[in-house]
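DM from R.C. (forwarded with permission)

"hey, sorry to bug you on a friday — could you get me a structure for this? deadline for the figure draft is monday and I only need the backbone to look sensible"
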Amino acid sequence: MHSDKSPTNCIVIPCYNEENRLPVAEYEHYLNQNTATLLCFVDDGSKDNTKNVLKDLKNKFQDHVDVISYDNNKGKAEAVRHGINYCNNKFDHHLIAYLDADLATTLEECERLMTFISDDINFVFGSRILKIGSNIERGKFRFVVGRGIATVISNILKLKVYDTQCGCKIFTKELSTQLFIKPFISKWLFDVEIFKRFILIYGLEKATNKMLEVPLKSWIDKGESKVSPTYFFRMWWDLMQINKSYNASSKRESKIINEKN
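My reply, with the result:
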């Protein structure tokens, strides 16, 4: 069922224990200026008062905020997936994105990246590249570890992607219905799976031309990552499982194509 007041764009924002971290003033400023975009918050089983903070925001901006709440924590991957599927079923928007709740990437930046979607490009993602004119504030340890992980991921994907893990990604509605239909293997490395699924849809060469990595003008590390330090060790297992699973899918599809030919 589709709303009569469907937004042009939707931004899905997963939330977990954000009562004291959610930059409510920034959200309110954006919502007061913007009438074309709906913010869909997914409260992923928060143990604090996040649900009521989001409820207050929805009450102030009835037509531009929607809130989904889980009783139990399902992880960021499922929260994003559920939020995107929810919006796709409810609204007739053109573009859909997801963004971290702390707004390390601002809503305005996300909106700017949306302008890069075109007839040829249906997947745009932000990149935390340090360059002249940008304001990228990231702790040294996080930067060094992040670059190491990014290099490994880039090699796995066989794509020259600088930053797969930036929490700002935009899709056409049509593409998102394909990318988010199935649950993800990893709760935190689902970004890698998105790229893998994208490549399965189009093939590596065409996929490279259908996506665009856009350097962010601003990204500010808000600290207090929700990812447990112990996940650093689990991460390599997740990467191995992702690579194994999607490579198997790719071989199956290639076999089917060859049999048809």
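R.C.: lifesaver. The first strand starts at residue 9 and ends at 15.
me: no worries. The two ends are 40 Å apart (CA to CA).
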